[in-house]
Amino acid sequence: MTEGDAAPARDRYEDQVTAGPGGAMTDEVGVITGDLTVVTGLSASGEAVIAVQYTGADEWYTLTGSPVAVPSGGLAALHAEVLERLRQGGGAEAPR
Q1: Whole-structure pTM over 0.85, yes or no?
Q2: What is the DSSP letter of 29?
């Protein structure tokens, strides 16, 4: 990449968040709570896939409602919305 080239679009975002009361709803194990690591990435088909895990654990879970279409704001905006939903808790699911 040379100066002046457009930066490549990111296709994966990862952050840590503390889930609010009621936690996050997963397909595999139901609600998880506490300190979570969240990854929002693109699948081969171009959909956004959202996975969560207890921070430091080995197992990953699918956030209920994932995969979803990438919104017009892009993957970064979707990831930010997911983080906010998880902070609020209440069995948070992927945006529809």
Answers
A1: yes
A2: T
